[in-house]
Amino acid sequence: MSDENRADHASAPNAPTADAPAGHPPEVVLPPRRRLSPLWALPLVAALIAGWLGWNWWQERGPQIVITFQSGEGLEAGRTKIKHKNVDLGTIETVRLSDDLTQVVATARMDRTAARHLKDGTRFWVVAPRLSLGGVSGLSTVVSGTYVEMEPGGGDDRREFDGLDEPPVIRADVPGRSFTLKAEQLGSLAQGSPVYFRGVQVGEVMGYSLSPQDRTVSVAIFVRQPYEGLVHDGTRFWRSSGIQISAGADGFKFQTESLKSLALGGVVLETPPDPEAGPQAGDWAAFTLYEDQTSAAAARDRLRVRYRLEFPGSVQGLQAGAPVQMRGLTVGHVAAVRLEYDEARQEIHIPVEIDVEPDLVARTYAVNDGQPMDEARARQLIATQIAKGMRGRLASGNLLTGQKLVSFDYEPNPPAIVPGTERSELPTLPSTDLDSILRSAGAVMDSVAGLPLEGLVDDLRHTIQAVGGVAGSPDLARSLAALAKALGSADTLLRQADRQLPDLVKSLRGVATAAQGTLKSADGLLGGGGGTADLSGVLKQLNDAARSFRVLADYLERHPEALLRGKTP
User: Fold this and answer.
1) Which of 93, 485, 534, 549 could in theory staple to 512 by disulfide, Cβ–Cβ 3.0 to 4.6 A?
2) Distance (Å, rounded) from C-alpha 144 to C-alpha 150?
3) How far apart are CA 279 and CA 233, in angstroms?
4) Using one digit for the tens of pLDDT, what is the confidence trace for 231-252?
5) Tally of domains within the chain
6) Whole-angstrom distance, CA of residue 296 vs CA of residue 200
7) HSE-up of 367 (CA within 13 Å, CB side)?
8) How far is CA 536 from the centre of its chain?
């Protein structure tokens, strides 16, 4: 068969062939099948890649959370980041107001790695520059911009949170313990106030709240590790005002904890030695916050014996907490000072309740007597001292502030009962301090006020006017001029006497010498001729006269003023 015939035969599929038996259908020959082009795989691969990228993006995309803030200051949609330790964990997507326009609702998209840290204890707050008494924070945001800080916490999963108004004082990852302090008032304490132990800062004040039930202030403090072991059941806390000034026998003392405590106040803790300290305190254990160290020391568990005292007169300056002293040493404290009215007697009393602490008095036990001091033995001891003359009175504790204290001392002959103190359990005496002096001074001033001072002042005024009239009169002026003239004449006479006195004295000495020579000649003459007794007497008188002249001359030489004033003794 030629090639044309084969082609014709092939082109006619139903044509029988020579080799095919008669009565059988002819063999069907199909055309060759076309193959799929590789270009059709490109869209499929692109779709698979896009699906994988989408799935991967969906898996990497973190959850969406809602944070509610009181203010939207510093929040910008699409720009404000959410960070933890300066690492980005999410972005604020939208910022809107709540339906009641009281809060700001921010929606944020978090990273997948942050999803397992979104718990009930997670906290958020805005980090921005802040200036407070405790210091300056958030300065880095001046360059980088405001962001939201996230602090992971524990608990169940959560997607809605309330943002903090202020950054927390203590981060959750700082090890330590928290405690609660109960106080009557907050005082100068604030968030961030330091907590000291022997001058070293061991913690901070985290916050405070007011209890509506008992109206007390609860102050939450945090003590860092490893100092939390210092807090035991017997630990005492008191306020540190920053400045402590005390006056004693050695002068004034000035003490301060730190400059920070001056602005924020502070808390001081002190733990007594074992076994008084007790076991370590647990988390959030409650303690009393005392006003000062003295109040904290007075609150320790000691035996206290209470007495009621009544003092004659005023108790101004005496307050609860004032010391009770025995010869200058503290043996207790004043528990209360109040005003009472006795309806039966229709009298007003001011009782003073004191707590005597026998443990403050060191005792010397007798032989085989080591029994502990109890209330009965303490009262017996005080009764014995009262029988020996111990009496109580009010004394001045501080002259500057006027505070009073109760002082006990022994009186040699005390009265049994002072009038007005019949209801006192311990005998008292009137105060002998500055108040008594002031009362005496007041009595003196009352007496002075009763004098006729106005009449005395008028008489004194008239006397001064009369003296002034005499001083200004012409007669007094003339008299003074005459006196000045007389004194001038006396001065001239004295100068002349000073010049003439030597010649006068010299003449008197010459007369005395001549007289003495004459007497000697006469004496010789009489001795040779044996004169009469009358002549001897005359000569003796002449001799006495010459001696007198010589004495006079010597006296005038030493005292020339005698010529004017005469001889003075």
Assistant:
1) 549
2) 17
3) 6
4) 998 899 998 865 666 554 445 5
5) 4
6) 19
7) 0
8) 110
Q: Which long-range contacts (CB under 8 A, 24 or more apart) does 373-381 make?
A: 373/303, 374/303, 375/303, 375/305, 378/303, 378/305, 379/305
What tens digit of pLDDT does each residue of 459-471 get? Answer: 777 777 776 666 6
CA atoms of 391 and 310, how far apart (whole Å): 12
Task: Kindly state the greatest CA–CA separation across the chain.
Answer: 248
> Which residues, other chains included, contact 276 with Cβ-Cβ below 8 Å and sequence gap of 6+?
234, 300
Kindly state whether residues 293 and 313 are assigned to the same domain. no
User: Given the structure tokens 């001046």, which residue do they identify?
Assistant: 142
Alpha-carbon span 224 to 229, nearest angstrom: 9
* 47/53 Cα distance (integer angstroms): 10
Final residue belonging to a domain, choices 298, 324, 355? 298
CA distances from 119 to 74, 109, 153, 399 (A): 25, 16, 6, 62
Q: What is the pLDDT of residues 68-115, one digit of tens each?
A: 999 888 898 989 999 998 899 999 999 999 999 899 999 999 988 888
Instruction: Examine the domain organization and report whether 109 and 221 are in the same domain.
Output: no
Range(s) of the domain holding residue 337: 305-364+372-441
pLDDT over 70 (residue 437) = no
The residue to which tokens 């502070």 are assigned: 266
String of DSSP letters for 334-398:
EEEE--EEETTTTEEE-EEEEEE-GGGS-----TT--PPP-HHHHHHHHHHHHHTTEEEEEEES-
